[in-house]
Specification:
By secondary structure, this protein is of the alpha+beta class. 31% of the residues lie in helices and 24% in strands. It contains two helices and three strands.
Length: 67
Amino acid sequence: MALIELASAPLNCTRLVVCLDRMTPDRSSKSLMRDLGWVGFELITLREWAGGRDTVSGRWIFLGMEV
């Protein structure tokens, strides 16, 4: 929650993106993704940074949230 508050007020960010390592054990990553989903994060692709193509990273899982 502190990260969301910091991103919105002092930093004036419009989006917050979290990167999770795909090598994290399933039990831990699924739990973290579920918790982040409750806060408002959702899975995203690299489309915005890949010239409009829906690109998925083999190394990272990206979750985004509008702030």
